[in-house]
Design the sequence.
């Protein structure tokens, strides 16, 4: 087929069509006007006009995480690109596939401190998986296709393409995606079979095993979650999930111990600490997971399955490493397990489960209820109870206490239904992410569980939500504090609540109404169910403000500088001495 | 205040080793910044770094990095380099078998009389070649491993060393195998 000559912007749009992009989140500006002109001339690609570029990136993240597809962003040069940076790094740390198209000043002005010029590739180099500056229109189509390939291959991540205006307006040839093959980037997806055999051997001999799975399972696709379930049930081993992995294994299953880590369950963390064989699948031994490294699961043999070789032995040394895609490795693992007729020591496993049940019996998520004020935990529990019968419920969160309570008290049965900023911890993530999820799933129930501080960081996106008639529900737990900051100040800094009190808060009901959304409020426990029900029944977008206990802490918790078996609980906290002097320097 | 932490204290106490790492990359804009940014961003050391295009037709460059760290850090450095998109291959010349390492230096020595004669005599012993001369100065070119260059430079100091330029280490594995593959 002969190549067709067209202008740069048309090449960009054609490449997006050919890559199967149906939605792009963006904000126009001088340098990208030619692309917006091409968008105007076609109907296949839908553009969602956000209110700030940061919102566009988070929306694309929500879109990507709930669909498994690549999220697409379009911003202008200079401030457009710099506003996108936080979202790009967020996607980088949480391994979310994105392609972000940035406008740039014409090539002859690059380096000239031109109007709205920024060194976008320089700024975004450490915040992206890869980035490109297109200097020759001959490379444009190839780079567009390569970017999509790079974003979704191996460990997914964000890719930036910097597009100078003269390139967008110049004429060039279009190359279809089938003709583009990447020169150097070819990540391994199949695990080495001898490593897998070693892993199975180790697992079969385990007396006190644990499976610890993370976001890699979600990224690998729904098939990987199915295989994880199959393998877990085949072995009868206990399983715990990271914050990023919630939904990768059904929360209702009896083998599931809940989330692990800093605010994970007692049973999950104790099982991690005391186990003799650990199978880590698609997780990366993050510091929120391990606690103090030299006391992390001290007596276990560790197996690590990860698609990214740099995750192996990064912070925790492992005994068997399998580099490959979680789905492929699990498939092979099940085959090898069956072929070798691996038999677990059932007696030992039974004893292990008995011990785990003892830990579970501690009921670490129990909290003191109150008749006068709404406990935040209760609010999440009721939200879950009143929505769990629904088929498709997507939850996004902001960052802070409400995020951890959502992770603890909301139960996820399926992957891709939980969107939270895990690695970067970006306040203001949830509302735009919910917007992106709702764009991808117009008929689903999408709820942003938020705090009153976080929601104000990207509240402008409510305007976008109204423009496109997206029925996003915002469920704000309002404790009038930056709750997690206040909690740490209580535990670490003698309750000196420096700058963590939220003063001059808006009236959230009126705020919602001013945007054209519906505002609801509950201040007493007896109002809670009615307000939630009303929120769910409302077709329009809703801000639902729940006034919750102000100084409630998020427990259980592994304090900074402590090990998994040194958790503290709501009931028995001596807030004076909860964190050691040594732990104070940590975040 | 605090002396230990969940991040700070590395539980694996190990010796710091020096490794020479060879990286084959696409010769595209920004590739060197990507490699250097990786080292500075993750707190790795660069003791020396050289880069030049080695295969023009394929657009490939070879970067030779001398770095130091514990065995775990060295492993991380290689893995982190390996996951950069324009990187074709990474090889650890210190670990993967015998290799040849060379460095070139241009050494300017300024002096008259006995010192000048002595400089020339030592240069001869080190097989350093004068590549520029005036009545009161020499520029010597010397090739060898880092230790040899260090020794020569040390000897030149009292004899009037005024300027010095070094290339940094280039290295290649011994034997017939290529890290650049067939072409």
Sequence:
């Amino acid at each position: 087929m002969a190549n067709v000559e067209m202008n740069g912007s048309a090449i960009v749009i054609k490449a997006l069509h050919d890559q199967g992009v149906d939605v792009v989140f963006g904000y126009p500006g001088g340098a990208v006007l030619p692309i917006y002109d091409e968008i105007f001339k076609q109907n296949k690609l839908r553009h969602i006009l956000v209110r700030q570029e940061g919102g566009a990136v988070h929306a694309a993240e929500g879109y990507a995480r709930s669909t498994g597809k690549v999220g697409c962003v379009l911003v202008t040069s200079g401030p457009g690109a710099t506003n996108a940076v936080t979202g790009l790094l967020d996607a980088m740390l949480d391994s979310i596939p994105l392609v972000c198209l940035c406008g740039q000043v014409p090539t002859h002005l690059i380096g000239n401190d031109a109007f709205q010029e920024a060194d976008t590739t320089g700024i975004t180099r450490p915040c992206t998986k890869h980035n490109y500056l297109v200097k020759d229109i001959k490379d444009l189509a190839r780079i567009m296709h390569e970017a999509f390939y790079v974003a979704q291959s191996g460990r997914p991540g964000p890719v930036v393409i910097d597009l100078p205006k003269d390139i967008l307006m110049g004429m060039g040839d279009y190359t279809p995606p089938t003709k583009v093959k990447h020169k150097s980037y070819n990540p391994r997806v199949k695990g080495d079979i001898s490593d897998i055999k070693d892993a199975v051997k180790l697992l079969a001999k385990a007396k006190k095993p644990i499976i610890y799975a993370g976001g890699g399972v979600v990224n690998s696709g729904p098939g990987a979650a199915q295989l994880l379930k199959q393998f877990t049930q085949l072995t009868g081993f206990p399983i715990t999930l990271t914050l990023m992995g919630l939904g990768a294994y059904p929360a209702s299953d009896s083998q599931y111990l809940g989330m692990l880590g800093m605010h994970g369950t007692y049973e999950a963390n104790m099982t991690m600490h005391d186990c003799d064989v650990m199978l880590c699948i698609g997780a990366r031994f993050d510091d929120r997971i391990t606690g103090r490294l030299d006391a992390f699961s001290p007596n276990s043999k560790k197996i690590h399955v990860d698609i990214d070789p740099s995750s192996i032995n990064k912070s925790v040394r492992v005994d068997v490493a399998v580099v490959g895609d979680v789905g492929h490795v699990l498939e092979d693992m099940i085959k090898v397990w069956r072929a070798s007729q691996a038999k677990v020591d059932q007696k030992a496993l039974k004893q292990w489960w008995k011990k785990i049940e003892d830990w579970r019996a501690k009921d670490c998520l129990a909290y003191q209820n109150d008749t006068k004020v709404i406990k935040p935990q209760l609010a999440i529990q009721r939200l879950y109870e009143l929505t769990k019968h629904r088929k498709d419920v997507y939850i996004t969160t902001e960052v802070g206490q409400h995020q951890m309570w959502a992770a603890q008290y909301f139960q996820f049965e399926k992957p891709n239904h939980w969107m939270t900023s895990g690695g970067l911890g970006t306040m203001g993530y949830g509302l735009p992410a919910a917007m992106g999820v709702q764009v991808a799933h117009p008929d689903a129930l999408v709820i942003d569980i938020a705090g009153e501080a976080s929601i104000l960081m990207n509240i402008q996106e409510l305007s976008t939500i109204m423009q496109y008639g997206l029925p996003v529900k915002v469920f704000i737990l309002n404790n009038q504090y930056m709750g997690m900051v206040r909690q740490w100040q209580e535990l670490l800094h003698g309750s000196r609540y420096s700058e963590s009190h939220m003063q001059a808060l808006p009236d959230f009901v009126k705020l919602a109404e001013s945007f054209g959304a519906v505002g609801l409020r509950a201040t007493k426990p007896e109002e809670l169910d009615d307000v939630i029900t009303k929120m769910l029944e409302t077709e329009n977008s809703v801000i639902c403000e729940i006034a919750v206990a102000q100084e409630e802490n998020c427990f259980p918790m592994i304090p900074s500088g402590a090990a998994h078996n040194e958790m503290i609980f709501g009931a028995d906290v001596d807030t004076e001495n909860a964190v050691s002097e040594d732990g104070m320097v940590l975040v | 205040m605090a002396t230990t932490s969940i991040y700070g204290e590395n539980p694996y106490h190990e010796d710091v080793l020096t490794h020479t790492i060879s990286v084959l990359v696409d010769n595209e804009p920004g590739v060197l910044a990507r490699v250097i940014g990786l080292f500075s961003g993750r707190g790795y050391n660069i003791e020396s770094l050289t880069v030049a295009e080695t295969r023009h037709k394929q657009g490939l460059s070879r970067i030779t990095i001398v770095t130091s760290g514990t065995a775990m850090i060295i492993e991380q450095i290689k893995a982190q380099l390996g996951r950069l998109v324009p990187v074709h291959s990474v090889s650890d010349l210190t670990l993967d078998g015998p290799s040849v390492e060379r460095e070139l230096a241009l050494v300017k020595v300024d002096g008259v009389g006995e010192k000048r004669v002595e400089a020339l005599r030592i240069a001869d012993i080190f097989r350093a070649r004068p590549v520029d001369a005036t009545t009161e100065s020499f520029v010597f070119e010397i090739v060898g491993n880092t230790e040899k260059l260090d020794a020569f430079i040390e000897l030149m100091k009292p004899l009037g060393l005024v300027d010095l330029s070094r290339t940094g280490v280039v290295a290649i594995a011994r034997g017939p195998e290529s890290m650049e593959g067939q072409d």
The mean pLDDT of chain A is 95. Residues 379 and 426 of chain A are 23 Å apart (CA to CA). The first strand of chain A starts at residue 5 and ends at 7. Chain A has 22 helices and 20 strands.
